[in-house]
Design goal:
The protein is of the alpha+beta class. The chain has a five-stranded mixed sheet, with no helix packed on it. Strands 9-8-14-10-11 form a five-stranded mixed sheet. The mean pLDDT is 86.
């Protein structure tokens, strides 16, 4: 019990250590479109994102369930899941698919819903278009006038609002494209000219090898 009275202010955090198993106090931060942003205690060494959302995090109506991520050491860790409406007070909650164990200093970010898609890179015109459920990867690129002559479409990728990236895949010549979501950024890289051009040294090497093979055949 403290010897003197301390006036508590909003957002103050009072912690009480349990003896004899005293442990260092650890916290995670919640930012963005939530009812009560701020610092929260990591209750045990196995405290996860599922625990955090279940106990402390309620989303505002402006929150993006596609863009939630944990920031750790300036690295985005995507948090995928599904939105849930609590029947008791009709508030928006979120249930992560995976249980990421939270570490001291982690920041859970819930960004504002973004109803656009950015198309950039080797396209005729960089564009921002409104998201529609019918829009797909190829259609979004076409809406930007298509690709330029030096575009490397097979290396195209999409970056989601939560930091997750997915690339165009090809299997036996059949391309599959990642799904477009609100707040996505589609990037079409340019071709690597160094890979497409054969250097003088490589030509000399190929010629030397060919001459050696011909000489070997003649000697047989």
């Amino acid at each position: 019990v403290p010897n003197k009275k301390i006036l508590l202010l909003p957002d103050d955090i009072v912690t009480i250590n349990t003896f004899p198993f005293r442990r260092e106090n650890k916290f995670y931060n919640v930012k963005g479109e939530v009812a009560l942003p701020g610092l929260y205690s990591i209750k045990n060494q196995y405290y996860t994102t599922k625990d955090a959302f279940k106990e402390n995090i309620k989303l505002t109506d402006a929150a993006s369930v596609y863009g939630i991520f944990v920031e750790r050491d300036s690295i985005k860790i995507p948090v995928k899941g599904k939105a849930l409406y609590l029947k008791d007070n009709d508030t928006l909650s979120f249930e992560p698919e995976e249980e990421l164990v939270l570490l001291n200093g982690d920041i859970i970010n819930i960004p504002t819903f973004n109803n656009t898609v950015l198309i950039t890179g080797a396209v005729q015109q960089e564009s921002i278009i409104n998201f529609k459920k019918t829009i797909n990867f190829r259609g979004a690129v076409i809406s930007s006038g298509g690709t330029t002559e030096n575009a490397d479409f097979k290396r195209g990728y999409i970056e989601y609002q939560n930091g997750l990236k997915k690339s165009v895949r090809s299997f036996f010549g059949i391309k599959t494209f990642p799904k477009v979501q609100p707040g996505s950024k589609i990037v079409i890289p340019e071709k690597d000219e160094n890979k497409s051009k054969t250097s003088v040294g490589e030509i000399v090497g190929y010629t030397t090898s060919l001459v050696s093979i011909i000489a070997l055949i003649k000697s047989l």
